[in-house]
UniProtKB/TrEMBL annotation, chain A:
Residues 723-756 have a biased composition (Low complexity). It is a single-pass membrane protein. This is Penicillin-binding protein 2. Its main location: membrane. InterPro entries: Beta-lactam/transpept, Beta-lactam/transpept-like, PBP_dimer, PBP_dimer_sf, PCN-bd_Tpept, Penicillin-binding_protein_2.
UniProtKB/TrEMBL annotation, chain B:
The gene is rodA. The keyword Transmembrane applies. Keywords: Cell shape, Membrane, Transmembrane, Transmembrane helix. It comes from the Bacteria. Its main location: membrane. It is a multi-pass membrane protein. The chain crosses the membrane at residues 33-52, 72-89, 101-127, 139-156, 168-186, 192-208, 213-231, 302-319, 331-349, 369-386. It is found in: Membrane. It comes from Streptomyces lycii. The lineage of its organism: Bacteria, Bacillati, Actinomycetota, Actinomycetes, Kitasatosporales. Its EC number is 2.4.99.28. PROSITE patterns: FTSW_RODA_SPOVE. Pfam families: FTSW_RODA_SPOVE. Pathway: Cell wall biogenesis; peptidoglycan biosynthesis. It catalyses: [GlcNAc-(1->4)-Mur2Ac(oyl-L-Ala-gamma-D-Glu-L-Lys-D-Ala-D-Ala)](n)-di-trans,octa-cis-undecaprenyl diphosphate + beta-D-GlcNAc-(1->4)-Mur2Ac(oyl-L-Ala-gamma-D-Glu-L-Lys-D-Ala-D-Ala)-di-trans,octa-cis-undecaprenyl diphosphate = [GlcNAc-(1->4)-Mur2Ac(oyl-L-Ala-gamma-D-Glu-L-Lys-D-Ala-D-Ala)](n+1)-di-trans,octa-cis-undecaprenyl diphosphate + di-trans,octa-cis-undecaprenyl diphosphate + H(+). This is peptidoglycan glycosyltransferase.
């Protein structure tokens, strides 16, 4: 420093140099501070952002599990469709953003070039449909209906179609084996909603945007099992979306298969018989209304008496569940939901409720015994019963003299039950109940499981209604305002509605004697569902156990290694002694042999297969009568109903008889031909589950149809349905052969021509065809992806 | 002074080149080694970072992952040679050559405006010479410093005046304004910004009247507003400023660079992801990563420690430069050193600052670290000038 004074250096320059130095170091300190702020203070935030930057997910959808019948016949499975998709990342690497490739593709597929390019553009606020709403790293499907020819053209000239793939992909199929659509029981799928995605976001099974969710029926109640888990592969990508490496890969896990207790053949018979019975009813003239019966809706349930398992369940009107596959069209949806179609989506076996009519009478019979009346006592079956000036007539005003309760069931004598119900009503205190009112007739109905859900494994079951004192009160509370409003017209207007409104307004909160009397024969405000009645009758058949009816029988993992049985669960016992049950059982057998149902069971081999039955014809205000028919054997319980269909035995009788005929192989004359029996004993064994997890499917024959068997078999046996072994009953070898041929026809040609090194498919020995196809299709698709 | 005399007395011409270089008062011994070491370390770090940023980019490196590593190292070697040459010649010798150098640099930047010039990143600032891209404005920074220093120090170092007079200041400003105007036409706004700061630093160190300093700053501010208002800037330049003001404005567009740069640096944390392991770097999310955004590689792969080291090394160079500026005996040397300090300090601050999101984006390389021959040569020549000022013997000695 000593030399500084020697220079011309002035203090001004020195000060300024110091200032410069300070300035320089504060700038550097600023940089250091900012660096600390970004890397240390906020480092985690940026690390997360960097991770989001360079990782992209590609999703492989899981193959949905199949729904199979008790013998392994697929009711809902997946079929292989040729899906042509475009990889956007590949296309965007091209100089023209893949335009030329898409134009060539459009030509091959016979589509307009604009339609194709629209499909691969990404959706944003300004883009109209069609556009791609998913991840840009996901292959974008152009069509799922490519022909083998088109797929071949694309595959053979892969150099002309970079980034384009033609892959067989699994698409839901409702096969309708033997013509059994089983529509409402199976339910349907529709795409997941934003709300559901959000809700399931942080659960174990989050949804993907491409997911389909079961919306009704088994598809819904077993959705979690059936859905499986989509595979997610995370790729590290660079700025241009080029894949640099694979960070993590969770393979797709196929959904579980659900084996049901449904028998597709019985289901087909039930559906057809229901349809036929309703058509027949519409030809019958109704004297009361002066026009033909409407038979607007109907349902039939076949349960295993000893387990409550559902062998078949049909509801009419029905629909084709395949309409939902690949997104339902607006037209189809409108048709399925408008009033004109009478709501085919409803499963009337569990969602249709109506007054039960006389099939209800087993309940007042049990109730009367509970209340202390002797089953074998003598009760006058007069032609009518009067309370004050109100006269309640017996059905067709018949007088049977003094009879016991069994005979009252057999001949369906109303007046016996009127009298008992009225006596009980009086004993309980009439309109103003005593403190310890027993209300046996109502309590028994509750104990039989009415007024609540049976617990069947199908969604949205309804409860029906037991119109007891509490319900009367609640109902009056809810409706008194509108009743009393209408009642104001009295006495100027004296029509039925005004009169009823006035009565309801003034005294509707109380249980009247006439309420109890009407109730005792299953009329009035009583509402039941077919499944409730089937549960009750099967309980009578099996000695008193009320089972939760079940459709699902077992859940099988896709590899077949885990089989989770769904055991029948009882929800109660009938509140009836063994002795009384036996007496009721005997009376119901008499109904089938000598009572109201006897004419429908003429020639039935009662000694070999004891039949029990109860008919019911319920009156509905403003409508035609509801036909009810409840029957059971040792093995099966069948309950059928037709809304506005006429009498119980008249409208439903033949159909129920025909279902029994098919089950046991009984012909018109009552001869049993075991070889024609579809299911003489309930199916207890599960279908065979193979090593690879595929499930062996039993052959489905066209059910022997009494009237037009030959013709129909020819017509539909050849190619109508998707059952693997149409029209063959020559044992497994024939079945397998037929299956292999079908496989070759469907897919083999494509595979061979495309020179896929898929030995199994090429050899033609793949037993795919007699399995439910889903697993195999999925496997093949998976193999292709591996390559 | 006795020690000094003693060593001279021991001086013998027969010692040979090595002996002369390593003799106690030799050029080499008297050089500022902390500065030299820091500059070398920075250049070495730069090689690694440039390598990491380019080794996967086949479209740049023609398939050779070492391409940029080699080129960068060669550039450093040439830079070292240029530094040695500058020290050898000495800044005093160069003082005499200033008019020639000035004229030469004017011609070079003039050539850029002819069809010989090429455009890189919207900036028409490059000369394509036999396959090599040259950015003459880098050399212009040096000639402006030398030219202004020559003019401003002439009368003072001669002992005529205490401070440069107004006339000299006007001359010096005019000298700087001509090449700046040409570079503005390219347009290479970043270089012009650096030159404005250089001019400020030079004027400060020259001892010019405070009125000049304040006046110049005011003019600069008014000029900046005028430039903005009159729409002289290209759209991309306006966008860069807009993105700086509000980085969330358009993360996919103009804000993309700064956003990705900040993500890269922020994700580095304390130790970084390790060299070659940065996902942002490997994924090429940050543009211009081997040149203007090279600091993001350091931030992501070497973390706070690596990034901090670069700032510290730059700090060492600037600290030594400030010492040289203060200790030199003649105003000419002081002004040259101050010009270089202003240059290095501002360019480093702007470059690192833009990657950290505290400065708007401008196309400026990080001294010693960024890939780029011209810039590398220029900063090493500047180091040569500083060393020459350091090793100079007082004129009176």
């Amino acid at each position: 420093m000593s030399n500084i004074p020697e220079t011309g250096r002035t203090s001004r320059v020195t000060i300024r140099l110091v200032a410069i130095q300070i300035l320089v170091f504060s700038l550097l300190a600023t940089l250091g501070g900012r660096l600390w702020f970004l890397q240390i203070r906020n480092g985690d935030e940026y690390t997360a952002e960097a991770a989001g930057n360079h990782v992209q997910q590609v999703v492989q959808p899981a193959v949905r599990g199949s729904i199979l019948d008790a013998r392994g016949v697929p009711l809902a499975d997946n079929e292989t469709r040729l899906v042509v998709s475009a990889s956007r990342t590949e296309l965007m690497k091209m100089d023209d953003d893949g335009e030329a490739v898409l134009a060539r593709l459009a030509k091959v597929l016979g589509m307009k070039p604009k339609d194709v390019s629209d499909k691969v553009r990404l959706c944003d606020a300004e883009t109209e449909q069609p556009c791609w709403n998913g991840s840009p790293y996901q292959p974008i499907p152009i069509t799922d209906e490519a022909t083998t020819q088109q797929a071949l053209a694309i595959r053979e000239r892969s150099e002309d179609f970079p980034g384009i793939t033609a892959e067989p992909t699994a698409v839901r199929r409702y096969a309708a084996p033997a013509g059994a659509t089983t529509s409402q029981v199976l339910g349907y799928l529709s795409p997941v909603t934003d709300e559901e995605i959000k809700k399931a976001e942080n659960t174990d099974s989050p949804f993907l945007r491409s997911d389909q969710v079961g919306r009704s029926g088994l598809e819904r109640s077993y959705d979690e099992y059936l859905r499986g888990k989509a595979g997610v592969t995370r790729y590290e990508v660079d700025k241009l979306g080029r894949v640099m490496g694979q960070t993590q890969s969770d393979p797709a896990v196929a959904g579980h298969n659900v084996i049901t207790s449904i028998d597709a053949r019985v289901q087909a018979v039930a559906e057809k018989e229901l349809e036929k019975a309703m058509k027949e009813a519409r030809k019958q003239f109704d004297d009361n209304t002066g026009r033909n019966y409407e038979a607007d809706a109907g349902a039939v349930v076949v349960l295993e008496s000893k387990t409550g398992r559902v062998v078949s369940m049909a509801s009419n009107p029905d629909y084709d569940p395949n309409a939902w596959v690949g997104g339902i069209s607006g037209k189809d949806y409108a048709e399925m939901t408008d009033k004109e179609s009478n709501y085919p989506l409803l499963n009337r076996a569990i969602q249709g409720q109506a007054a039960p009519g006389s099939i209800f009478k087993v309940i007042p019979t049990a109730a009367a015994v509970k209340a202390g009346y002797d089953f074998n006592g003598r009760y006058p079956c007069t032609s009518s019963y009067s309370i004050g000036n109100q006269v309640f007539k017996n059905f067709e005003s018949q007088d049977h003299g003094a009879i016991n309760l069994g005979k009252a069931l057999e001949v369906s004598c109303d007046t016996v039950f009127y009298r008992l119900a009225h006596q009980e009503h009086k004993r309980d205190g009439g309109m103003n109940p005593k403190k310890d009112a027993k209300d046996w007739f109502y309590k028994t109905a509750h104990d039989f499981g009415l007024g609540k859900k049976t617990g069947i494994d199908l969604p949205n079951e309804v409860t029906g209604r037991v119109p007891d004192r509490q319900w009367k009160k609640d109902f009056w509370e809810a409706n008194k305002d509108s009743w009393c409003e209408k009642a104001k017209d009295w006495p100027e207007k004296k029509d039925y509605v005004t009169k009823l409104s006035r009565e309801n307004c003034l005294a509707g909160m109380k249980l009247h004697a006439y309420d109890s009397v009407n109730y005792s024969i299953g009329q009035g405000d009583t509402l039941v569902t077919p499944i409730q009645m089937a549960t009750i009758y099967s309980a009578i058949a099996n000695g008193g156990t009320l089972y939760d009816p079940s459709v699902g029988k077992a859940v099988v993992s896709p590899d077949g290694k885990s089989v989770e049985m769904i055991e029948p669960e009882p929800h109660g016992k009938l509140p009836t002694s063994k002795k009384t049950l036996q007496q009721i059982d005997g009376a119901l057998a008499d109904v089938a042999t000598a009572g109201t149902a006897a004419w429908r069971f003429q020639g039935w081999p009662q000694d070999k297969i004891p039949m029990h039955a109860k008919t019911g014809t319920a009156e509905v205000y403003g409508k035609q009568t509801t036909s009810w028919f409840a029957t059971y054997t040792e093995d099966y319980t069948i309950v059928m109903t037709i809304s506005q269909g006429g009498t119980g035995s008249g409208a439903s009788g033949p159909a129920v008889r025909n279902i029994y005929n098919a089950l046991y192989g009984v012909d018109e004359k009552g001869k049993i031909d075991k070889s024609k029996a579809l299911l003489p004993k309930p199916q207890t064994e599960l279908p065979e589950i193979r090593e690879d997890g595929s499930i062996k499917s039993a052959p489905v024959e066209k059910p022997a149809d009494e009237e037009d068997a030959a013709g129909e078999e020819d017509a539909s046996g050849g190619g109508g349905d998707t059952g693997p072994a149409d029209g063959t009953d020559g044992g497994d070898a024939a079945v397998d052969q037929a299956g292999a041929d079908r496989a070759a026809g469907d897919q083999g040609a494509f595979d061979q021509a495309a020179a896929e090194p898929d030995a199994e498919a090429d050899s033609g020995q793949d037993p795919a065809a007699d399995d439910h196809g889903a697993t195999d299709d999925a496997d093949q698709a998976a193999r292709r992806e591996d390559e | 002074m006795t020690g000094h005399g003693f060593s001279i007395s021991r001086y013998t011409p027969d010692q040979g080149v090595w002996g002369r270089l390593t003799a106690r008062d030799s050029l080499v011994r008297r050089m500022d080694w902390p500065m030299l070491a820091s500059a070398l370390l920075l250049s070495g770090l730069g090689s690694l970072l440039v390598w990491s940023a380019t080794r996967n980019r086949t479209e740049l490196n023609n398939g050779d992952p070492y391409d940029y590593l080699i080129k960068h190292t060669v550039n450093v070697g040439i830079g070292l040679a240029l530094m040695a040459g500058t020290v050898w010649l000495g800044h005093r010798t160069l003082r005499g050559a200033v008019p020639v150098l000035y004229a030469l640099s004017l011609i070079l930047i003039g050539l850029v405006l002819t069809p010989l010039g090429t455009t890189i990143n919207g900036s028409h600032a490059w000369l394509d010479v036999g396959g090599f891209s040259l950015q003459p404005s880098e050399f212009t920074k040096i000639t402006i410093i030398l030219g202004m220093a020559m003019l401003l120090a002439a009368r003072v170092d001669a002992g005529d005046r205490m401070h440069p007079d107004h006339r000299t200041v006007v001359q010096a400003l005019a000298l700087a304004a001509v090449p700046m105007a040409i570079i503005m036409l390219m347009p290479d706004l970043g270089s012009v910004m650096v030159m404005v700061v250089i001019v400020l630093g030079v004027l400060l160190a020259s001892g010019a009247s405070n009125r000049w300093i304040i006046g110049l700053m005011t003019t600069g501010a008014v000029g900046a507003i005028a430039v903005w208002q009159l729409g002289i800037l290209d759209e991309y330049q306006i966008n860069r400023f807009a993105a700086f003001a509000n980085p969330e404005l358009d993360p996919a567009g103009v804000g993309y660079n700064t956003n990705q740069a900040r993500i890269a640096i922020g994700s580095g944390g304390l130790y970084g992801t390790g060299l070659f392991n940065g996902t942002q770097t490997t994924g090429q999310f940050v543009p211009e990563q081997q040149t203007d955004f090279v600091f993001t590689v350091a931030g992501e792969e070497l973390g706070f420690l690596g990034g901090g080291l670069i700032i510290v090394l730059l700090g060492v160079i600037l600290w030594r430069a400030c010492r040289i500026a203060r200790q030199t005996t003649e105003l000419y040397g002081t002004i040259v050193a101050a010009g270089i300090i202003a240059w290095f300090a501002f360019q480093s601050f702007e470059n690192i600052g833009m990657t950290l999101g505290i400065m708007p984006v401008a196309g400026l390389p990080l001294p010693f670290v960024s890939y780029g021959g011209t810039s590398m040569f220029a900063v090493w020549i500047a180091v040569g000038l500083l060393q020459s000022i350091k090793v100079q013997r007082p004129l009176s000695a």
